[in-house]
Every structure is written in structure tokens, then in C-alpha cells.
Design goal:
The chain has two domains: 130 residues, Response regulator (Rossmann fold, 3-Layer(aba) Sandwich), CATH 3.40.50; 89 residues, Response regulator (Rossmann fold), CATH 3.40.50.2300. The protein is built from nine helices and five strands. A five-stranded parallel β-sheet has the order 2-1-3-4-5, with helices on both faces. Helix 3 packs across helix 5 and helix 8 crosses helix 9. The two termini are 33 Å apart. The relative contact order is 0.13.
């Protein structure tokens, strides 16, 4: 079992969108001689307040997946506003979302498959001022994140061109309704619905209903783009 040096107990902030996860990891780190504190997840269920929460940390550990915009937004808020070198442990696949973490200053991003003993060793190195991820690893991931943000913004702009009725039709398509069923729900002719679907495809610049539905499904998670958190910054 990894232990911190006897001469010092490093103060570590621990955060997760799941309070039980952060508390159990905090306990495991305490067992490894860290002075670990579970901090509140923005917008989530508040964790017990601790007067040390606002103090300085030697390092911080963030656990979670960031596929949904609200989770990503909360994670980037923590990393950018809590002064500490952050180690991020995530289920999200290596790619743009890792870049989002690096873009707001994360020290190191690791896969969730990393063992707790390995994480403990990393936290000690980080707390002692060890180097973070090399630039050759960080920059391509940040660039991938920037491209994804641009795609999100473009999608949001296209969705904004839909009329209220076209958006209503798109919502129903996403719910699995057929054109005939939508016509019945909205009490309009089938030809009217088909015309609205054509307008939706044209405005979203896609070639099929399936692609339009996929775009809307993406927008459900990206309605509040993580880019709002800053130039490089995020439901449950």
C-alpha cells in the first residue's frame, strides 16, 4: 500500500459528482497518510462543510466522467477556481474532454483504470512539485477540444435558426415519432410535417432525419456549452 513520507502529510482536495465516491476515496487516502478533504461538487449534493475547504491544498484529485455538458462545466469550474495542481481521474475516453481539463489548467489527466496506489504515488509527486503532462501530450488534446467547441458553437447556431414549430417537430422526431404520428399530434397535414422536416434538414445542413435527430441528441448535452466557462474552460 502506497504511503506518503512520514515527514509530511500532504493536504489533498478530493471532488466527484458522486458524494459517496469522493468520501470513499478521501477515506482511502487518509488511510494512506494523506490529509484528504472532500470538497463540494458545484451544483451537486453538498458535501459536509469543512473549515479547511477554503485553505490551500498541496494537490487535488477530481474523479468523474464529463460526457454531459453540466458535468464538464462543473469540473472545469473546480479545476479553474480551486488553487491546487489537479490530477483528474476520468472514465471519459482519451480525447477532447481530456483536452478540456488541460485547457483550464489540470496538471495531469489519468484513465479511471489507474489503481489507487498509483494515484497516491502521483499525488505525492504532484504535491512535491513534480512536472505535469508533457506539452507534446497536452497540446494535441487541447487542440482537439478547441475543434469540438467550434463544432458545438456551429451546431448551436444552426439550431437557433429553426422556427418554434420546426423545433417542436425535431423534438418529436428525437422522441421516436414518425412523420404521420407527428402530424396527428400537431393536428396538421402529413405534407406540412414533411415540409418542416425538409426545412430542418436544410437548416442543420444534414442529409437525413437520422442525422438531424443525432444532432439534436448532441445538443441536449451541449445546450450550455462548456466553452461558456471561458475561452478554455462546463446533467447529471
Amino acid at each position: 500500500m502506497a504511503k506518503t513520507p512520514e515527514s509530511r502529510s500532504y493536504r489533498i482536495a478530493v471532488a466527484s459528482q458522486h458524494a459517496l465516491v469522493s468520501q470513499s476515496v478521501r477515506t482511502a487516502l487518509v488511510d494512506r497518510s494523506f490529509d484528504a478533504v472532500a470538497v463540494r461538487w458545484p451544483g451537486g449534493v453538498p458535501l459536509p462543510r469543512n473549515p479547511r475547504e477554503s485553505g490551500r491544498y498541496d494537490a487535488a484529485l477530481l474523479l468523474g466522467e464529463f460526457e454531459r455538458a453540466a458535468r464538464l462545466r462543473a469540473a472545469t469550474l473546480l479545476v479553474s477556481h480551486v488553487a491546487a495542481p489537479w490530477v483528474v481521474l476520468t472514465d471519459s475516453p482519451r480525447g477532447p474532454l481530456w483536452g478540456a481539463m488541460y485547457a483550464v489548467g489540470a496538471h495531469l489527466v489519468l484513465a479511471a483504470t489507474t489503481s489507487l496506489d498509483e494515484v497516491a504515488e502521483v499525488l505525492v509527486r504532484v504535491a512535491e512539485g513534480g512536472a505535469g503532462a508533457p506539452e507534446a501530450e497536452r497540446l494535441p488534446l487541447i487542440e482537439a477540444w478547441d475543434r469540438l467547441r467550434e463544432e458545438r458553437e456551429l451546431l448551436a447556431a444552426r439550431l437557433a435558426t429553426l422556427t418554434p414549430r420546426e423545433r417542436e417537430v425535431l423534438v418529436l422526431l428525437h422522441a421516436g415519432e414518425t412523420a404521420a404520428e407527428i402530424a396527428a399530434v400537431l393536428d396538421v397535414s402529413l405534407s406540412t410535417v414533411r415540409s418542416q422536416i425538409k426545412a430542418i434538414l436544410r437548416k442543420l445542413e444534414v442529409s437525413s432525419q437520422l442525422a438531424a435527430v443525432a444532432a439534436y441528441g448532441t445538443a441536449l448535452d451541449l445546450r450550455q456549452p462548456a466553452a461558456n466557462g471561458g475561452g478554455h474552460q462546463a446533467g447529471s
